[in-house]
Design a protein that fits this description.
The chain is 40% helix and 16% strand. A six-stranded mixed β-sheet has the order 3-2-6-8-13-14. It has a four-stranded mixed β-sheet with strand order 1-12-9-7. The chain has a two-stranded antiparallel sheet with strand order 4-5. It has 312 residues and is of the alpha/beta class.
Length: 312
């Protein structure tokens, strides 16, 4: 190799090391900010969360590869693809995607009916022989998302090839419209629009999101109609709304729990600064906050069985 090529390769390796070092610093600052009270201080990395969830599901008979996960998160590419592959690996089957804007559960009853025709009815044993399953099993996962940068600023996320970006854009838009720009005061005109505005047929999902989220805001015991909620509060309200809509729509299906077992799981997906690996490639840094709503399973026509995510 010529001297020029050696110098070029050395520069490339130094550049990788520098990027990796800066990435490590950003991630450490992000984790410090995340652990502070009032944000998502109990969040854990996605991989660890999925290990905990897999163990909790197995304890109640939901074994890997023997149920279908049904994922309701935002349409944003980092929201879907940040967890889709990880869930496929953890659960053994690809998720049925229910995703809508902001992670809202707007795909409706028909989409749930479709999903409930996709669960495995048998699995292959070690000899590749079919083993019939007595019950079909489904895991419904509601998951809004948010970006947080290394400074701990909610809503900020640096996408690949883009210096300044945000997540979740739909929830940020909902929150920002509530505020008179440059103040923390409520914009009365926005409230009127959220309460009484028509559904825009060319912007269906966001129109419905505005109404559902404002209704949820009005129900909040901490909101007095004076101060604009923080983005963190808005995302936590979105999780509550998704969970409520999912439960209501599942209730409309009149599921026979003696035959079809299902779990309802709720959490918030958090995007931190991306990690630079040994090859200098950027990898997603996804964390999960799951402390707000208890997860449960419905089976054998019994009351809910709550999942224990502290087995690991």
């Amino acid at each position: 190799m010529s001297k020029e090529n050696v110098i070029k390769e050395n520069k490339k390796e130094l550049s990788k090391l520098d990027a990796k070092h800066k990435s490590k610093e950003k991630c450490e600052k992000f984790e410090t900010e995340l652990s502070k009270p009032g944000i998502f201080e109990t969040a854990i990395p996605l991989k660890l969360y999925l290990e905990k969830l897999v163990a909790a599901l197995a304890e109640v008979g939901f074994m890997k590869g023997q149920f279908i996960p049904c994922l309701c998160t935002c349409r944003d590419e980092i929201a879907v693809h940040g967890v889709y592959d990880a869930m496929t690996e953890a659960f053994g089957l690809k998720p049925f995607v229910l995703s809508c804007l902001g992670g809202m559960m707007f795909s409706g009853v028909t989409s749930l009916e479709s999903a409930m025709k996709h669960a495995p009815q048998y699995f292959l044993d070690e000899n590749r022989q079919e083993v019939n399953l007595k019950n079909e099993r489904y895991v419904f996962i509601g998951m809004p998302h948010i970006g947080i940068n290394e400074e701990g600023i909610p809503g900020v996320y640096e996408r690949e090839g883009r210096h300044h970006s945000h997540a979740c854009g739909a929830l940020i838009a909902f929150r920002d419209a509530l505020e008179i720009k440059g103040t923390h005061n409520i914009n009365v005109n926005t409230i009127v629009q959220y309460r009484d505005g028509m559904i825009d047929p060319d912007d269906l999902e966001y129109s419905i999101l505005q109404k559902r989220m404002f209704s949820r805001l009005e129900q909040s015991k901490d909101w007095k109609g004076e101060k604009v909620p923080t983005l963190v509060d808005v995302v936590k309200m979105a999780e509550l709304q998704i969970f409520s809509d999912l439960e209501r729509q599942l209730g409309r299906l009149k599921i026979d729990n003696s035959k079809n077992f299902y779990a309802v799981v709720s959490c918030i997906e958090i995007h931190g600064p991306r990690i630079i690996d040994e090859e200098g490639k950027a990898q997603e840094n996804t964390w999960i906050f799951y402390d707000q709503i208890p997860d449960y399973v419905m089976m054998k026509n019994r009351d809910p069985t709550y999942l224990n995510l502290n087995l690991l």
